[in-house]
Amino acid sequence: TFTGGGEPMIHKNFYQILSFTKENGLDCGLITNGSAITKEHCDNLINNLKWIRVSVSGGDEASYNKVQGKDHFERVINNISMLAKDKIKKNNNIKIGIRMLVNEVNLHTLSKLAERIKKIEGINYLQISPNQFSDDEGKFWNGPDVDNEVKKTEKILTE
């Protein structure tokens, strides 16, 4: 798995390393923030990865920017869409997932994210996770606001 405390794809030799792993029989996955996905490298990602999971910090521009500190929401969604379209076009079975770390800032946008990604054919899953740095002993994560938003999101994704 290519992951870390930063964006793995910005390493100058990332694509060469990725190709090398495939050539040597290793099954690999990538955890990315999605901002560095480019059309130029979609083939390399699709052909050399078993799965890719994109971390998305909010379900709309405002919450994403507030959590991530960057205005990359549309860029990331467009990059996910581009990757998923190439997956479908090439009839590839790479698993494409999205993960949102839910907190008080972005909770109300989880269902908005579901509405956006439901329109993108080729996405395999949406994963939500609690903020592990919270000191509320799970009260927020196990509270009614999260429960209501999760139910709303599930409804959107299963209709």
What topology, given as strand order, has the largest sheet?
1-2-3-4
**Quick check: average pLDDT?**
94
Rounded radius of gyration (Å): 16 Å
Helix content: 40-55%
Please outline the helices and strands:
Layout: H1 14-23, E1 29-32, H2 39-48, E2 51-55, H3 61-68, H4 73-89, E3 95-102, H5 110-118, E4 125-130, H6 144-158
Parallel strand pairs: 1-2, 2-3, 3-4
Helix pairs in contact: 1-2, 2-4, 5-6
Would you kindly provide a written description of the structure presented here, covering whatever features stand out?
This protein is an alpha/beta fold and 159 residues long. Helix content is 43%, strand content 14%. The protein has helices at residues 14-23, 39-48, 61-68, 73-89, 110-118, 144-158, and strands spanning 29-32, 51-55, 95-102, 125-130. It has a 4-stranded parallel beta sheet with strand order 1-2-3-4, with no helix packed on it. Helix 2 packs across helix 4 (73-89) and helix 5 runs parallel beside helix 6 (144-158). The radius of gyration is 16 Å and the shape is globular. The mean pLDDT is 94.
